[in-house]
Amino acid sequence: PTLILHQDDETDRLLASQLQGCGGCAPKPLRDLRALYDYLGSELAYYFGWASYYTRLLWLPALLGALLTLLDVFYLDARAYPIENRNFTEDPLRAASGAAGVAAFAGFRGLDNDVIDLMDGVNASLSYGFIDVDELTAQERREYKLLLSSEVASGSEAHHGRVRYGLTAAFALLVVIWASSFLEGWKRRAKVLALDWGALDDALAAVAKEHVKFSEDAMRRGFYTADGLWVDLSADTQSAPPGRGRSKVWRPTAEDAELLGASHTSRWSSASRRMRRVSVSVAVVLLMGLACVLTITAIMVLRLWFVRRGYSTVYVAIINAAAIEVFNSVWRHIALALTSWENHRLEKRFRDALVFKMFAFQFINCYFSFFYLAFFRRHDGTLFGLARSANLATDRCGGLDCMYQLRQQLLISLLFNFVVGTANETLRPVRKAAITKLKACLKRASRRVDVEPEADEVRLDAIAAKRRRKERLTPAEERLYEQNELIVDIVAQYDLPELKAVEFGLSPTFYEFNELALQFGYIVLFSAALPAAAGLALLNNLLELRLDSVKVLKLTRRVPATSDSKGIGAWRSILLFLTYVGLGTNLGILIYTSDWFERFYPSFTPLDKLLLVVVLEHALIGLKLLIDACVPDMPAGVRIALAREEWLADQRVARNDQRSTTEGSLGETQ
Questions:
Q1: What is the pTM of this model?
Q2: How far is the C-alpha of 459 from the C-alpha of 220, rounded, in Å?
Q3: CB 565 within 8 A of CB 206
């Protein structure tokens, strides 16, 4: 690969603007993004522009989510589910409204032996009459609180519970509207950036660019259209041309045959063979998705085993998060191999296929366990029959318990992804550079040479190392560096590793976009269960933006600057898909997963809930489509600038035509 050297003065200036600026807090200045575009090219410049815009817009849901979380933890939760100083006239199991309470309790725990033993333990710790909750252990407090969640609330409890429910529903609605506004706002922002970079028309080059790994099946006379159709120009072509009926056969005339015979050959690949390979890839995606589901189901069975023996389920949540990361890492290599094997001709088609393939699997891998916790566990407590066959306790939960466990699993997964992902992406270049240096040292140590290396050669290596560490050079080293500046810079930068995506033959920003798209999914899909997700994402992104800047500008080789990228590409379709799915998941969490309707709105029947979901879902989809329709894709300022440029171009052409006509008239007169 071609080695393009970093310019130290330029990288220092760019890095200072990235680290010291307010990226993610205030709008990124166009001059800073233009400088990144000139130095790194359109792909990385679009990534930093998009990531900065996304992080800046996260402030609204992050602050509101943090306020809602604090209000819930320190005020609403204790008043909607009070357990302190309750006056009991009978044991807690009977206190839940007799038979109706027992039925409700069985609805989310199941009256098996484990529950009876557990409640006996709680009853043994409670005395009749006035109870001091401080006498209960943490486990007994939690189990008793879950028991109370099966009761229909009244009075102050009902009031605070409805306030809590209303605020959470309003926040989930806000996140859905925010996501739609964010996508529409980015479309406009991308047009502004493209106009400032003079790259509004460069998107055509990205569409027509061939993928470097494309392998032709044969050389044939013909060409591909812009939408990928092969036009055969062989001399024996017989087809129906546009505008003529399919029943008519076009037979080229003698003149047409002569033109066809003089046509150039192009690289051709079989479309049917590519479709067969795509079908195989889809089957592999489904098989990997099935393996992922089975693995996560096995982890859930392990959690039941932990519960049966009284162990903490936090360890199982950590195992689940680690399994997700392992599957994602393995699938990256499989997806890249499959997409290369499919033999896509165009660079854009290759990237889009890889993005969709990667995310199709990751959607299952990253979100399946959360969908099970949110929508299946409360109504099927046997893990699809596995818990019963393994002689384990049922996995059924109530609304409060399901929400607690869903929130806990989301929090652990987000923190795990943020910590592990950030550490891996940041330390990888350092680790790769250290391994490369170690290999070079071992190679030099094991190589037997008769002639000692030149002193200047050794000193150049030392100077390059000092330059990387920004250490002061001695006067002699300064003179030697001035004489061999280019060689020293090449030696210093050749040891730097490539970006991870570039090393694997992908676009430079592939893994960065992939990480943030998964993060966006956690926020949009499950905001009703974990309002603090946006705040965690904001903190991660404020750090990630700066670490990515250091990685791209200092810790890895310089990426060749190109101007053929069209915004964020297929990732916008992924984000749009997550926004639509988030409409349904948040409604389902609010209405079916939580216990809020049973406890605070008991008059709602299952049919009422279904009708409410349908009406609200259609209303939210209509609202999103309305936002899409009302917000123009191109800002007025960009349209005005384009119209001005077009008018000036027309005036220049008219002036040149007028000059040509005048000069021709003068020539004829003379």
A1: 0.76
A2: 56
A3: yes
